[in-house]
Description:
The strands form 4 sheets. Strands 1-8-9-10 form a 4-stranded antiparallel sheet, with no helix packed on it. A 3-stranded mixed sheet has the order 3-2-7, with no helix packed on it. It has helices at residues 27-32, 116-120, and strands at 48-49, 77-83, 87-91, 99-101, 105-106, 109-110, 131-133, 140-144, 150-154, 157-158, 180-182. It starts with 26 loop residues before the first helix and ends in a 38-residue tail after the last strand. It is built from 2 helices and 11 strands.
Amino acid sequence: MAQMKRTVIVASAMVALTACAPAGYDGANSSAAEPVAVAAAEPTATVEPEASASAEAPAADAPAADAPPANVDLTEKLVGKSVARMGKVVTDQDGWILYRFDKDTADPPSSNCVDKCAEVWPPALTDGNPELTGVSDDKVSSVTRQDGTRQLTVGGWPVYRYIGDKKPGQWKGQAVGGTWFVVQPDGKKNLSCLPKGTPKAVAPPADSGSNDAGGSGYSY
C-alpha cells in the first residue's frame, strides 16, 4: 500500500464576509429548490484507521483487504488549502469541495446520510489509501457505511461532495438546511462565509427512481 503523503499548507488571509457567494451562486434558485430526504441510519461500524506514513507495504502476493466494488468511484486524494472568500477547505483530487453533516457523529464516527440523501451528497469513498496534501494523516480515517463501502472521515466527521456544485471550487452546499458546511482540514466547520437565509438542497437526480422530488415529509 502506497504511503500517505503529507505537506504543509500556507493559509492565506481571509477577506470580509461581504460578497461571500461562490462563483455561479444563485441564492434565489437555491432557496427555491426542494429539500431532500435524510434517512436516519443506525450507527455504523467502528472507525477503520487509514494507513500511516510509517506503515509497511504488504507483501506483493498478499490479497487486497476489503476491496471496494468495481463500480464505486473513489476519492483518491484529499487536499487541504485556502481559497478566496471561504478560507480553509478540503477538496478531492478533482478540486470538488467537501462537506460535513451536522446529523452525523464524529465520536464515534458514523454517517446518517443514506438513500436519497447520499444521492445529493455523495460520500467520499476510499479503498483505505488516499493521498494527502495539506491534511494531517492523524486527522484522516474511514468509517464503514451500511452498504459496506468505506467513507473517508476528517477529524472524525464523514465527508461528502454536493451535486449542486456544478464545477470544482464552488461551495453552493454551504449551510444547506442549516446542517451542511464546508469542512476544514482539521474536521471543523468552516463558518467564515455563510449565505443569507437557509438554502435548500437540490433534488435527487431524475434517474434515481425517487418519487419524492417534492421532498414532502422530509427534513434536514
